[in-house]
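Structure representation.

___
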Amino acid sequence: MNVSTILAAIVALLTGLAAGNYMGEQPTPSQNETNANEYEKAEYTPAAEDYVSLRPAVDSLPTELLTDEERAGLLLMREEEKLARDVYQTLYEKWGLQIFANIAQSEQTHTEAVRDLLNKYDVTDPVTDDTVGVFTDQNLADLYRSLVAAGTQSETDALTVGATIEDLDISDLARLLTQTDNEDITLVYENLLRGSRNHLRAFTRQLTAQDATYTAQYISSTELETITSTNQERGSTAGRTGSGGRGWGGGKR
């Protein structure tokens, strides 16, 4: 992960928003009323329960050989999903927008899902301190501080940061899926990817309600359009064994 590139993209994106239409001509009262109604509709976000527990399915699959690429990918996603959770928790405390509280809970189940894979493959967990903003990967620690700084400027900036995080997650997960043929890792990554697409839809929907537009930073503009123009995805992509519940739970087994 090139943190300098990520930070430059965030700065450019937020600068573009500041110069964009949402800071331009002031809307008429009727436009304000319309936007308020749209924003209220946009308050729907994926609930924490939307991430169905795959623990039984993951446990039922064989423990296969783990390549260096697969190991590195798991370590990255364990902390990258924690990064999303930490940023959203912090921005919820700042702005009180329910979208951040809901998605932070989903991200908690995401990072726990990867943690379970680390346990299954006997890989040392990089999260030795679950405190918000604390990371073993110093690049992610720096990125956390930069994202929070950007997201505390305004509600629109905060929603843009949310969309940027999900954009990055989608890009990384798609890449990591090409680097593994282990069934259990593939199963978890596919479901994390589904969750990230849903979260991106939610953030861009609320940005639209604020007359702001998100521009893809990591995925292509075509992929962004495809994701945001389709409905929320439901359920699990497991298709192997029955599973249920609202997530992985908080503690190690």
Summary: The CA atoms of residues 18 and 85 lie 26 Å apart.
